[in-house]
């Protein structure tokens, strides 16, 4: 039974336990894996833990037995995020977030393919990239995503996204974090 189908009290208990397991990563998760519909950890209804619990339930549990727990899932995912830094790849190819500048879908896909070694999946809404997926095999190597980006994206797209982080605030790898780093 999925955590979100439990009673409200049971679901919140599940989320609380999950957050305890990843407590040393919460600061890093807030910075690099935020919920875009919930802007502050303490003010979000139910807490951002609901978002991360959803990510663990939907994606993390599928990575078993390679990744066996919540902490390993989130730290592995963060490290893959830094290793395959799509924001940097796209920026170096001249594709930067903009609500008005349109970019060729094929050029964006090609830039990611060249850097990652596999075809990504872009999901668009009204011509704007809403999601960008890099797909991985069970051994955590990039693989071609099954769905074609052209199914939801037009030939020219926009990236109305968050402003890229300043480089002095970026990290390149997450290891075991101490209490004062969260």
What report would you give on this structure?
- 35% of the residues lie in helices and 14% in strands.
- The chain has 182 residues and is α+β, with helices and mostly antiparallel strands.
- The protein has two domains: 77 residues, Alpha-Beta Complex (Ribonuclease Rh, Chain A); 78 residues, Ribonuclease Rh, Chain A, CATH 3.90.730.10.
- Strands 1-6 form a two-stranded antiparallel ribbon.
- A hairpin with a 5-residue loop joins strand 4 and strand 5.
- The chain is globular, with a radius of gyration of 17 Å.
- The two termini are 31 Å apart.
In short:
This protein has helices at 8-21, 26-32, 49-58, 70-83, 86-92, 105-116; strands at 98-104, 121-125, 128-133, 135-136, 142-143, 156-159.
Write the layout of secondary structure elements.
Layout: H1 8-21, H2 26-32, H3 49-58, H4 70-83, H5 86-92, E1 98-104, H6 105-116, E2 121-125, E3 128-133, E4 135-136, E5 142-143, E6 156-159
Antiparallel strand pairs: 1-6, 2-3, 4-5
Helix pairs in contact: 1-3
Protein name: Ribonuclease 2-like isoform X1
Organism: Nelumbo nucifera (Sacred lotus)
Family: Belongs to the RNase T2 family.
Shape descriptor reads globular
DSSP summary, beta strand count: 6
Query: Could you name the ranges where pLDDT drops below 50 across 5 or more consecutive residues?
Result: 163-182
Q: Would you give the CATH topology of the largest domain?
A: Ribonuclease Rh, Chain A
Strand content: 5-15%
Please give the share of residues in helix.
Answer: 25-40%
Order of helices and strands: HHHHHEHEEEEE
